[in-house]
Structures are given as C-alpha cells and as structure tokens.
Write a structure and sequence with these properties.
alpha/beta, Rossmann fold, five-stranded parallel beta sheet, five-stranded mixed barrel, 14 helices
C-alpha cells in the first residue's frame, strides 16, 4: 500500500465534546478537502478517520480511547489520526496506543491535514504496518503547549458546516479563568479573540449556507478583551446583526455575570434575529462550593442576573452546567443547588458527577474532601429528574403559541429560537430550511410545529 491512502478512500471525522470542538473539526475537514481528499460520512468506508477528542471529564477521555480501539478492531487497515483537547494534554499516551496512526496535540487544521495525508515529519505508513504511532510535530503557528496562547485563531475562514442546517461561528478560543475543575483551559490556553472583521467575513460566508449561526468558543463572554482597542461580545453581536442580514444568531455558552445590558437588549428586542436562548453555566448553587471551585461569582450574583434576564424575556430557553459531588459538597450544599434550580425557569440542564482532571486544583482536593461516587451520581439523577419535569411543563406551556424554526436533517424536526426540538407536521416547502410563524401544538406527547395554513 505504501505511505498513501487507497485511491478514493476518503476521510471521515468523529468529534467528541463541545461546539468549539465541532467547529475545529469543520476547519480540519475544510483544510483536508482543500488539499484534495474528499470527505465520506462513515468511517466504515473511509481510508482515514480523524478523531477530535474532548477532555472535559475522565469519561470523555475514555470514550475517545474506546472509539479508537473499536474502529481499528473492525477496520485493521484504517488509519486513525487523533487530535483535540485530550490529545493536547495526553499526546504521549495516545501515541503509545497501537491503534493510533498519528497524534496531533491540539486543533491546528494544517497539522491535522499533514497527518491525514501523510506529509512531512508527521507522516505515517499504513496503520497495520506502523509499529509505533507518529507524534506529529506542531506547525509553524504553535511550537509547544506552553506557547499555545500565541496561536492565531481561525487563520482561515470556514465556509460551511458540512451536512448541517445550523453553522458554528467561532469567535474566540481559550480561557483566562482558572476554575479549579477545568482541564479545557489547560488544553486550550489563554483567551484569544478573532478580529471583528474576520468574524464578520466568516459570518457572511456561513450565512450563504446556514439560516442560523451559533457564536461559539471556549469563553465567549471574554470576547474582545485581548484586542486593541478592546471589544465585547455585545458589540460584536450588534455588528453582526447590522452586517449580516437574514440570518438568526444564537449565543453559545455565556456566563450570567457577562450578559451585559446591551446583550440583554439585543436578546429581548432583536425581532427574533437573536435566538431567545441562554446557556449560563452554574456549576453549583452553594457559595462554599463556588469558592472552592474558584468561580468568580456568588450564588446571589448568578440568581439576581438570571431573574433580571427572565423578567425581560417571557419566552426563554434557559440551560446550565452543574457539577455534583465536588470535593467537600455536603447535603446542605446540594440542597442549595436544588433550591436554585427549582426557583429559576431552567428548560434543561447538563449535569455531571465530579470527575478529577489531572493537573487541576480540584484533583488535589479529592483525597482531603472526598464525596462518594454513589452520592454524586444520586445527586445528578435528582437534578436531571427535576429539570425534566420543568422542561416538559415549559414545552406544554409553549403549545398554542407561534415560533420561527430552523429545519434539521430531512426536515421532520426543527429547532425553535428557545431551543426546543419539535416535530414538523403538515405541508412545508421542500427547498426551505427556515419557517416563520409556525403554530406550536401538543400532540402525541410531544411538541409539534404546524406550518401556517397546513395540517
């Protein structure tokens, strides 16, 4: 077979983790396609698969390793290129896996393309013939993990998100906060913002293919603080609304304390140009735990801003991240979190039992203040059950109202501005990906959307 892929084999991509990771995969895909190798949907038919890893939890690391072993077990001839956050922190561990053909420590699309195509010092031969996986040397833009904060973000404009209705628009990377539990900061480096001009240019390009664009990054609330002159997330969104018409914008995860008055005004009064949806990480509703987590806000700061937002936005999809079983979390701390969840109108939650990440402050606290995994799991289940009830009540309340939706996949389902996935019923234009003013109804135990004038 030599050192190249089978003719016509193509490249497949498998992504773990957040929207920022999904964006990075699209940049990798675009870079590989620009160099002449086409994309295939399934790794079963590919000659190489790029695995973009996540490191938010131990489970995320384990899932990536299981997937890598599985694909090589089922396809011994398949080449596997490992990249992403977990690869940035555990590059040598992945390189030691017999199933890995090459490892890219991070997200650089150029380095991934080199590994996929077998070019330069990172090249490898056929997977089965490579006894020791290659650790790809980093490109000219980043030479070591210690210099990751100097890496330019989005050096090329993404033109489309392959096979999707909604497009990801990455506005920054990295994070300057130092939450005790977070390994993503270690993998991504310091916060770096793209220029407003570059973001706007990419938004225009993506708008040709996508009726909705999601502003994403690792800490988008810090957008523009590193630019000269400084910018802000709210100013950027206002610019995008002005410069990129006829598209709906949606904010990715943003801290409650970083929703300033202009951002709230744009959310509440944009005429559906900004989706009425916020994902505001909470992590805990107890001040002792928030301090131990090294979060920068108190329970009351979060609660007060959330209520101010809710007061302005009667229709609002509201989500949050919560960690249960953080070192030292007592029953009283958990009760405080439950009470806050009950008070605020969450429509969904992402709840995770605490998972110590190597190199973080929290990993050092586990032995001093352990919380049994069984207890952390029980607390997670309780929160998920409570928010499931709240979410269904919200969906039922939305029945009888109207919404603008973006169709997904084959058009049988759509997404409302407030982040409700609804079944589309009745007649709809075959070539349309966005429907204005659909009627929301409750039918057969789920929320459905009926295009105006048709059942």
């Amino acid at each position: 077979m030599g050192d190249s892929l089978r003719p016509g084999a193509g490249a497949a991509y498998h992504t773990f983790g957040c929207k920022a990771n999904q964006y990075d995969t699209e940049r990798m895909r675009q870079e590989v396609e620009a160099r002449g190798l086409f994309t295939v949907e399934d790794w079963e038919r590919a000659g190489v698969v790029v695995v973009n890893t996540c490191t938010v939890t131990n489970q995320a690391d384990a899932q990536a390793r299981r997937f890598i072993r599985r694909v090589r077990r089922e396809r011994p001839d398949l080449r596997v290129v490992v990249a992403g956050c977990s690869a940035a922190l555990k590059a040598r561990e992945y390189a030691a896996m017999d199933e890995a053909s090459a490892v890219v420590p991070g997200h650089d699309p150029t380095d991934v393309a080199r590994a996929v195509l077998g070019v330069g010092k990172g090249s490898v031969g056929p997977a089965a013939a490579s006894p020791q996986p290659a650790l790809v040397q980093l490109g000219t833009r980043r030479r070591s993990l210690a210099e990751m904060d100097r890496e330019p973000v989005g050096g090329e404009i993404l033109l489309r998100r392959d096979g999707a209705t909604r497009g990801w628009l990455k506005i920054q990377d990295g994070c300057d906060r130092k939450c005790a539990f977070c390994a993503t900061r270690l993998a991504r480096g310091a916060s770096r913002s793209r220029s407003p001009e570059e973001v706007t240019a990419e938004a225009r390009a993506l708008a040709r293919a996508h009726p909705e664009l999601v502003l994403t990054g690792i800490h988008i609330g810090h957008y523009g603080r590193d630019l000269e002159p400084q910018w802000s997330l709210s100013r950027l969104l206002a610019l995008l609304l002005e410069e990129v018409p006829d598209v709906r914008f949606r904010l990715g995860s943003v801290e409650a304390t970083e929703v300033d008055d202009l951002l709230l005004e744009l959310l509440a009064d944009s005429g559906n140009r900004v989706a009425p949806h916020l994902h505001m990480p909470l992590q805990s509703g107890a001040d002792p735990i928030l301090r131990r987590m090294r979060r920068w806000h108190t329970r009351e700061m979060y609660r007060e801003r959330a209520l101010q937002i809710v007061d302005r936005m009667p229709v609002l999809g509201l989500g949050a991240d919560i960690i249960t079983g953080f070192p030292g979390e007592t029953d009283e701390d958990h009760r405080a979190t439950v009470e806050l969840v009950e008070e605020l109108p969450y429509t969904y939650l992402h709840v995770f039992p605490f998972s110590p990440r190597e190199g973080t402050v929290a990993a050092e606290l586990v032995e001093e203040m352990p919380v049994p995994q069984r207890v952390a799991g029980e607390r997670s289940r309780e929160l998920r059950e409570r928010v499931q009830v709240k979410g269904e009540a919200y969906r039922r309340d939305r029945a009888g109202s109207r919404a603008n939706v973006v169709l997904e996949g084959d058009g049988r389902y759509a997404l409302t501005g407030d982040y409700l996935r609804v079944r589309v019923q009745g007649r709809r234009p075959a070539d349309q990906r966005r429907l204005h003013g659909v009627d929301l109804i409750w039918r057969d135990g789920e929320l459905a959307a009926v295009p105006t004038g048709g059942e």
